[in-house]
Amino acid sequence: MNGRLLHFYLAGINNQNFLMRDKETGSWWQQISGKALDGPLKGSSLELVACDELSFGQWKSEVSTGRVLAPVAKYEKEYDSKWEAEVAKLPVVISFPGTELKSRDVLVGVTLDGVARAYPWDTLVKQSPIVDRVHGTPLLIVVGPDKLSFRAFVSRIEGKDAEFFLKGDTKDWVLLDTATASEWNFQGCATAGASSGKCLDRVPALKEYWFDWRNYHPDTTIYKH
Amino acid sequence: MYDTDRRSSRWLWATFWVCALAGIGLFFVPAFIIRPFRYQAPRALLFAIGLRDSAPLWTLLAALLCLVFAFALWRVSTRWGKAVVTIAMLLVGFSAVMARINYFEWMFHPVDNAQFEGEAQSKLDSGEMIMAVRFGSDARAYPIREMAYHHVLNDWVGGVPVAVTY
After folding, report:
1. How far A114 CA lies from chain B's nearest CA (Å)?
2. pLDDT attached to residue B40
3. Domain residue spans in chain A?
4. A42, A79, B115, B147: most buried by Cβ count inside 10 Å?
């Protein structure tokens, strides 16, 4: 933050989203937004780093010399392989009755110029690739060949809006675009055709529970088709 | 003479209670507001954070002040009175200690010294989900199963300080 190195630790919970504090100033930060709620740095925001949620297999196929966080021996036995199913059973403290989704429904949330849109995970897996428009920007949201990993891109090639669909006549996972008929991989880069070598701009996307996403994005819309 | 004693003892008790409740409340009120699985209203949260920030200093001062009053009360109290003073002092002391401890880390242990292994050495299944961050040629994977336990990790990726959180 402003050239100062901060170290974070878990310090509390705010409606099931964690609160962190930094050791250097003691400010309080909200996990989902990276904003300081209180303390000397109140009002500051941390910069969001480009981050992917991928299966280990997908990640390995993309990197050549990656490094993986090793389990901490002391706690390894306590890691819960079924954590997702366990967390889904936990009660929620805020709910939004009358909305189309249930509190623990999982979605992929995207924000463009402050406009938020939610893509229910089940719909996304069924319909991927989804080409949509958020605040005037064409958006491509894809679930990877493993049906686990996901990514979002600006669906525009050289300034021109494009649509994408899965190439059907191949075993490999390949996307085709309607603007240049090129082939694209899950990293959003063209591997064959006129656009070969070009990559789409990435858009940060977050896999989240509906209650938490809706709480921090009260004006969010929900994708449906 | 008897009346004056009673009045001064009442004053002592009143001051002791104000001091004890302040000391106890400084820890327990924010702990009660910021508790898991309960709704936190925005104003209540900021109030709790404010108390939590001031708690380390003020719980200590309250404990010291309470101790002075406790000594004074001890001499004039019955056995019941002494029992009450003792319990209150234990709570005040507990509060002063807890105000200095991050009890959230009892449940969610931090990673003090993160170790990494090569992708080939990792025993993760290929279907396990990870969070991936990459700066330049430095690509890192943070297994979500592990991050769902530790929740926060401070790291450097390609020379960039990163706080990884799940």
Report:
1. 21
2. 86
3. 1-47, 106-222
4. B147
